[in-house]
Write a structure and sequence with these properties.
By secondary structure, the chain is of the alpha+beta class. It folds into 3 domains: 166 residues, no CATH class; 55 residues, SH3 type barrels, CATH 2.30.30; 117 residues, Alpha-Beta Plaits. The chain is built from 14 helices and 8 strands. The longest helix is centred in the N-terminal third of the chain and has 41 residues. The radius of gyration is 38 Å and the shape is elongated.
Amino acid sequence: MLVVDLGKWMNKILIDWGIDPKVADRFDETIIALLMIAIAIGLNYLCQAILIGGMKQYTRRKPHLWNTLLMKRKVFHNLIHTIPAFLVYALLPMAFVRGKDLLLISQKACAVYIIFSLLLAVNGILLMIMDIYDGKESMKNRPMKGFIQVLQVLLFFVGGIVIIAIIVNKSPASLFAGLGASAAILMLVFKDSILGFVAGIQLSANDMVRPGDWITLPSGAANGTVQEITLNTVKIQNFDNTISTVPPYTLVSSPFQNWRGMVQSGGRRVMKNITLDLTTLQFCTPEMLDRYRKEIPLMADYQPEAGVVPTNSQVYRVYIERYLCSLPVVNQDLDLIISQKEATMYGVPIQVYFFSRNKVWKEYERIQSDIFDHLLAMVPKFDLKVYQYSD
């Protein structure tokens, strides 16, 4: 009532001064509206100081997960912004008693402000859910960010429709119904988001990729560790420290290699060939076998099967297997295969296949290099030669 009396008093003074009544009406209503806005802003600061200040104090004394995240994501901040907006909305009819058009415009502005503040508050709650989800150890391997981004898109899309409906004075339902006609355009605009959402569900449901996985794309676009999975991109840090970003649906629609199984297994595979000179293969004589037993400790107890005359290549393969079995870095529980492949114009390949217990890239390369240095150096001990091309 105080606001109404103040408005009547100001209006009477302006008319007494000789100002046109219509201008006087607009002027005093504008002054009162500005006064109400000033009061609302003051009330907003007061609420922020009392409520948010109290919440901060409570969070410092009892820092629980929920109240810490509520403060971090500014959920209360945005909700408190609606208090003065509701107050102004309720008092506007008292300010604009005569100006119905200005009253309608002002109420629409307040309604839009209230809805936008509520959207920010709900968005903060969604971000809280993501923080809580990511904080759980059992959920870290499930990318949640993409789903939260989808909900954010839907939230602001619906909120935007409601705001537009308020501005144009239409029912939100009628606007949503009208969008059916423009579905093709919406599909085009949100194509990447829709594909990313569907791909994110497939990646997560089938456990195809997780943050922290080492993946390789055949195209060479990426070879490194997955840093982040979002609605529209998968961020990969390559081993040269560059960052590659690929759409999630690329990982669904085309093949890629995920090395997670190797990391979680008991070893990392080593598969290399040692190519022997075909002209140096021969049957072993008793003297050759005796020399091998004396000069090579791992072959000291070697005895060929009864009635079998082994070749020096065969004895060398036995040595490779015994040597690998003697190394702690080789996982004996996984496959260890030494085989001779089909001879070519470049010689006879001996394929060495085993698993290193150490899977760290640097150590893995050092281990396999040391092993093959030794195996290559032992080739002459068995009266063999490694094939080396020469003009």
